[in-house]
Amino acid sequence: MCSNPSCLLKTLENVRIPDVGKIHNLWTCNSCNKLWNRDTNAARNIYSIASFMQKNNLRPSRFQRPATDPQSSIS
Ligand SMILES: [Zn+2]
Fold first, then answer.
1. Which of 1, 7, 10, 59 is spaced 20 to 30 Å from 28 by Cα?
2. C-alpha angle 36/28/39, rounded to 5°?
3. Tens digit of pLDDT for each residue in 17-55?
4. What distance in angstroms lies between residue 9's CA and the mean position of ligand 1's atoms?
């Protein structure tokens, strides 16, 4: 997920260089075209989630677990 706060789509792809292939630690955003170091982007996302949780005492909606159906649970 792109950690650019103004980015709407937030999907990332590995950077590919012709005749070299995929560069594993570099990603580019399909929406804002920002180039990210994978670890830097991950650290920004973790900080953003932690800050949200500290302020709101719950995970951001994108990271919440789906509601479970009590009828389907195995006990
Ligand atoms: Zn983006």
1. 59
2. 30
3. 999 898 889 999 999 999 999 999 899 989 999 999 999
4. 7
